[in-house]
Design goal:
112 residues, mainly beta
């Protein structure tokens, strides 16, 4: 008797969001510094200098008894490496809630 069926929803249930973001530890990072030792306080009388890297951390040697007045370190090269980002994907769904069905009777003819 009521063949026209219509479904309406009072709201939605929204559980959408994003997966947590993060990143891997950097790989391929390198750096090197020039470490220098001087006998005077003004960094002009060089006693020893050595390029130091993470792969070769030898600081060189200064003869025992050598008086040092100053030291300096300067960056020769720096590559911070790369890391991979992950996460941030869309998660969750949106779904209608509180459905209500309305059934209607068809009009057999339009009155004139």
């Amino acid at each position: 008797m009521y063949p026209d069926r219509h479904v309406f929803y009072a709201g939605v249930e929204d559980t959408r969001g994003c997966a947590p973001c993060g990143g891997t530890e950097p790989t391929g990072a390198t750096c090197s510094v020039l470490a220098s030792a001087f006998s005077d306080e003004g960094c002009s009388q060089l006693v020893a200098a050595q390029v130091i890297t993470a792969a070769a951390a030898d600081c060189g040697t200064v003869a025992t008894g050598t008086a040092l007045g100053s030291k300096s370190v300067s960056v020769v090269s720096l590559d911070p490496g790369k890391c991979e980002a992950f996460g941030g994907e869309a998660v969750g769904t949106i779904a209608p809630s509180a459905a209500a069905t309305f059934c209607c009777q068809r009009a057999s003819s339009v009155p004139a």
